[in-house]
Design a protein that fits this description.
Layout: H1 2-5, H2 44-55, E1 60-64, E2 73-79, E3 82-88, E4 94-98, E5 112-114, E6 118-119, E7 126-127, E8 133-135, E9 154-160, E10 163-167, H3 175-179, H4 182-185, E11 194-204, H5 208-215, H6 221-224, E12 238-240, E13 246-252, H7 275-278, E14 279-285, E15 289-293, E16 298-307, E17 310-320, H8 321-324, H9 329-358, H10 373-386
Antiparallel strand pairs: 1-10, 2-3, 2-5, 3-4, 4-9, 6-7, 7-8, 9-10, 11-17, 12-13, 13-14, 14-15, 15-16, 16-17
Helix pairs in contact: 5-9, 5-10
The structure holds FE2/S2 (inorganic) cluster and fe (ii) ion (FE2).
Fe (ii) ion (FE2) is lined by residues 214, 220-221, 224-225, 347.
Length: 390
């Protein structure tokens, strides 16, 4: 076993990869800790274990319910290898189902749209918005076949302030046990009165953890964003105490953080109180959703894992509903889009470079600065799950 743990330039075999001794230095306090080993960002075995112990167990974020305002409105997503449908029913409830036909398994809906029923494109079986099988042609001679035995597989879905969360584990606890104190900490933004005005997607050439780590430290800002978001060097955000499955940075500042320097935008959200009135919150809702909550709007960065080295990023932009009704909204909001469309690709590009470097067989664990405390917390949260139950 000593050979396994020797600091040589080689990845452990899949059988050795989950030996907790490989991660002993990640488990140390921040000032003594190392980063996760490079294979945690490149190995398909590690990724598969994350799918099993993280995305199939935790509450996952799927944007806003205002994306599907009318009965029959739907969107389909392939999340961590699981195709799902999110659809609004005639009773206005939002529900989620496995996007896999109960006949011979075809995926039925793709993208966004509105439908009268969920109809399979293969042999025209059809399901209502509650997942009940309502049409199954040519099945009269099939012995013992009963329509009621073949509904779509439902998934647990809960809403918080207009945000959709889905859990693939039927035995999971309620969403409130995941978020705990986050709704209270962010209550003065009144997300439930906001509207999502733009969704933008990117495919990242990086492991999902690289992107989370980037979003949860401001150490890189004066380098990666030096010509766009550059801020005072050495003044880092503070860590917000959290009780739920989230963690956050808070940064005090004047004005908004959603515009480039020199641009003016919409008025402040009038209800802001406490730290929300004095700056911006940057929470990560575990496992893979980051919010930017500033004084006039909020945006989210939603990660959908595709493989060990590829991740879909969905960026959503939300403003208070009354702001979206202003006559000058479309004109002024372009300044916000400009800021996101410059700064987000900067993070995407640096993440791709990190992935290239980490994929090198010569790459080894690094050390963390005092300005990266949440990278350390996040790495340990991942290890708690990936190593935990096995
Ligand atoms: S696979 Fe869906 S109707 Fe046959
Ligand atoms: Fe950044």
């Amino acid at each position: 076993m000593s050979a396994v743990l020797a600091p040589v330039f080689r990845q452990p075999s899949p059988a050795e990869i989950f030996d907790p001794r490989h991660y002993a230095d990640v488990r140390k306090p921040l000032a003594e800790a190392s980063t996760l080993p490079p294979w945690a960002y490149t190995s398909e075995e590690f990724y598969r274990r994350e799918v099993e112990t993280i995305w199939m167990k935790e509450w996952n974020f799927f944007g806003r319910a205002d994306r599907i305002p009318k009965p029959g409105d739907y969107f389909a997503v392939d999340f961590a290898g699981v195709p799902i449908i999110v659809i609004r029913g005639k009773d206005h409830e939002v529900r989620a189902f496995s996007n896999s036909c109960r006949h011979r398994g075809a995926a039925m809906l793709r993208g966004d749209g509105n439908c009268n029923a969920i109809r399979c494109p293969y042999h025209s079986w059809a399901y209502d918005f509650e997942g009940k099988l309502i049409v199954a042609p040519e099945m009269e001679e099939t012995q013992g076949f009963r329509m009621e035995d073949f509904p779509l597989i439902p998934l647990k879905l809960e809403l918080w302030a207009g945000f959709i969360f889905i859990n693939f584990d039927p035995n999971s606890g309620p969403l409130k046990d995941h978020l705990v104190d986050l709704p209270e900490v962010l209550s003065s933004y009144h997300f439930e009165k906001m509207k999502c005005v733009r969704l933008k997607e990117y495919v990242l050439e990086s492991n999902w953890k690289i992107y989370v780590e980037n979003a949860m430290e401001a150490y890189h800002v004066s380098t990666v964003h030096r010509s766009t978001l550059s801020r005072q060097k050495g003044v880092f955000p503070t860590v917000v105490p959290a009780k739920g499955q989230w963690m956050a940075l808070h940064k005090e500042h004047e004005g908004t953080r959603a515009l480039l320097t020199g641009d003016t935008g919409f008025p402040r959200i009038p209800t802001l109180s406490g730290p929300a009135a004095k700056g911006s919150y940057y929470p990560l809702i575990f496992p893979s959703t980051m919010f930017g909550c500033t004084t006039d709007c909020m945006w989210w960065l939603e990660l959908q894992p595709l493989s060990a080295s590829k991740t879909k990023l969905v960026v959503g932009s939300c403003f208070p509903e009354e702001v979206t009704q202003r006559e000058d909204f479309e004109e002024v909001v372009q300044r916000y889009y400009k800021r996101w469309d410059i700064s987000i690709p900067e993070d995407n590009d640096i993440s791709a470079l990190q992935q290239i470097g980490l994929a090198s067989p010569l790459s080894k664990p690094g050390r963390l600065s005092h300005a990266e405390p949440l990278v350390h917390v996040f790495n340990n949260w991942v290890l708690d799950r990936v190593l935990g139950a096995h």
